[in-house]
Every structure is written in structure tokens, then in C-alpha cells.
Amino acid sequence: MEKLEKPASTIPKRTSNKSQPEFDYSTRKQKFRENCFRRVREDRTRLLWKLRISDCQSSDQKEIINSAFQDIVSDELKKIEDSSRNLLGNPTVTEDCDDILWEYEEGLKGVFEGDSEDILLEMQQIFYKDLLSDNGSDVQIETWEDEEDDYLAALVSQNMCLNSEQEQNQIWCPICKKGELMENHRHIYCNMCEMQLNKGEEVNLNILQERLAEAHAEHLERGCRLKPKFSVQSVYNLKALYITCEACNTFEVVV
């Protein structure tokens, strides 16, 4: 009796797809690094404010910086992974799509594991180098810090904590910066100056707190380092709190 030969396997072997032009690892790796470094510069000012308003020790501040940089690296890596999935389309369309996606994601994992430490170190160097170059010297850094408004920093901190369990019990007056904002059934007012706003369904102390934090954050994101001013004005018979800055031509209603 003749021995039957086993048919050749029809299961395709997993082959490398790194040669495919859409998976140019060298180009994507360089783009990945550039995006991480760009975001260090973009987020630097916000991170500095976060450090300045914190009461952390030096070691804790370094941990905050490292954590922020790791978040940037992870976020940029996720963007690349998402873009690869969009490029490949639906993995069930062809038999090779699953292999292609697997191969590419393994390559991305290698990029992250192999270069993440170097990238994080370079991000730290950029952070501190740009800080010194922007201010020219340590003396100018101190001058800039002296000109910073701790009141503004506190409000940005409040904005960061709005969704946390921390309660913000005090809201300082944006006009005199000495008194505390209070409220009754008719008005929001300062207990140290003449600042007063009418209270309504759309305006209360909590909403004012959120809007002040947002106004400061938006002004900061414009790249302006000068202190904005606040005032209560009546324009077209509408009494409102305004934020103004001559340096960047800001004139907007807060509430």
C-alpha cells in the first residue's frame, strides 16, 4: 500500500514587513523624537508654573518633570500606533493585514523600549537649556520669577484641580489681590476693595473661580509673560469683569 504524502502547509509564514515604504521606521522614529522635543518646549511654561506653585521638595519636582516627560513620550507613541492602524485600515480586509499590524506594533515597541531613556534625557536637557537661554542668565531668571504673579499661579493651580477632590476654600480678588471674594444672595464682592458683581443663575462664585483660572491659562498660552489686569466695567449697560493686557492686546469678558 502506497504511503500518502501530507499536503504542504497552506498557512502563510509571518514575514517581515519593515521593507514596506509605509513602515519606514527610521523616518517615523525621527518624527517621534522631534514631536517629543517640540512638546517639551510647548509645555515648558505651563510645567514651570506648576512647579512654582507646588510646595514640593527638589526631588519631588524632578519626579513631576520626569512624569510629565514620560506622559509626552507615551502619548506620542500612541499617536503613531493610531496612525498605523488608520493606514492599514480594517485588519479583516486581507489575510496579511493582521501580520502587517503585528509586525509594525512590534517594531514600535522596540523603538520605545530601546530609545525611551535617551529621549527622556534629551527632553530634560532641552527643558533646562531653553530655560537658561530664554532668560540669558541666572540673574535674569530671578528677575523673571520676581515679576511672576503668585496670585495668577494659584489660579492656574485651582484650574488644574477643578476635577480633583481638593476643595478650594478661598478665592482671592483679581483686582486688589489682597481681599477674598465672597457672595450673598445678590452679589459677588471683595471684602477688601470695591469690587462687586451681580450674582445670577449664570454667575456665582464657583463659576467665577473657573472663569478666572481659564482666563489666566488662555493668556499664558498666548506666550505673554506680563501680568494681565482685571477691572469691573459697564459696557453697553452690561456690568462685567474684564481681563486686559496692553502687551498682547487682550480685552475680554471674564464673567
Automatic annotation (TrEMBL):
Pfam families for the chain: RPA_interact_C (PF14768), RPA_interact_M (PF14767), RPA_interact_N (PF14766)
Keywords for this protein: Metal-binding, Nucleus, Zinc, Zinc-finger
InterPro entries reported for this sequence: RIP, RPA_interact_C_dom, RPA_interact_central, RPA_interact_N_dom
Subcellular location(s) per record: Nucleus
Keyword check for Zinc-finger: yes
Signal peptide location: none
Ranges for domain RPA-interacting protein C-terminal: 172-253
GO MF term list: zinc ion binding
Superkingdom in the source lineage: Eukaryota
Positions of the RPA-interacting protein central domain: 67-156
Sequence segments annotated as region (Disordered): 1-26
An example Gene Ontology CC term for this record: nucleus
Domain RPA-interacting protein N-terminal: start-end pairs: 12-53
Keyword set includes Nucleus: yes
PANTHER family on file: RPA-INTERACTING PROTEIN, RPA-INTERACTING PROTEIN RPAIN
UniProt-recorded name of the protein: RPA-interacting protein central domain
Taxonomic source organism: Arabidopsis thaliana x Arabidopsis arenosa
Organism taxonomic ancestry: Eukaryota, Viridiplantae, Streptophyta, Embryophyta, Tracheophyta
